[in-house]
Each structure stands twice: as structure tokens, then as C-alpha cells.
Amino acid sequence: MVKEGLVEESKVSSFNIPQYTPYEGEVRDVIQKEGSFSLHSVNGFALSWPTPGINTTKFIRAISEPLIATHFGYSIMDVLFKKYQEHVVDHLATKKGMNYNLIISLIKK
Fold it and tell me: For residue 105, what are the β-bridge partners?
């Protein structure tokens, strides 16, 4: 999008959304070490990404658009997520996308 003149390279270079997705064991360890709660149950399940990627794009857009738009402006959002959707569709044509979720029940000590 920089090459197309839609965003400034400096904006891209200065944009960062740090994200870390822990494994189930890491979540258990943090809860135990923190000590305020006991772990009642942890259930994990995997979901396949929906095909052809439209729903995946809507999901990601709903979560990330406010962060991205604040930095780059709302004017590029439609173009950005159209491009993202194309990448997701291409990816799902050759690979199976998965999303792993944890449901955690805690009891306050």
C-alpha cells in the first residue's frame, strides 16, 4: 500500500501490535504463580477458519480496525481489508486455517 501511495512508509515502520498467544500450559502456570485464583477447569477446542475467508476477514476487522484506523486513518480501511481478504482466500485455498480457543473457569481464593 506504500507503493500505491495509500500509506506513508514511516507510518508502516512505526506501527506495532504486540500479540502473544500462550499455550494452555503457560496459562495454567501463570494462574498458579499469581495465586489469587484456583483453576476450576480449562477446556480447549480448535475451530477451522470459515471458507472462503469473508467471515475470517470480518472477524479480524472487527477486532483490529480501531487500532489500525487510529494510526493510519479510516480512509484506507476498505482497501486494506479487501487486500487482507484476498490473502486469506489464497491461503485457505491451499492450507487449512485453525483457531485454538481456551475456556477457563477460575475460583477466587
Answer: 41
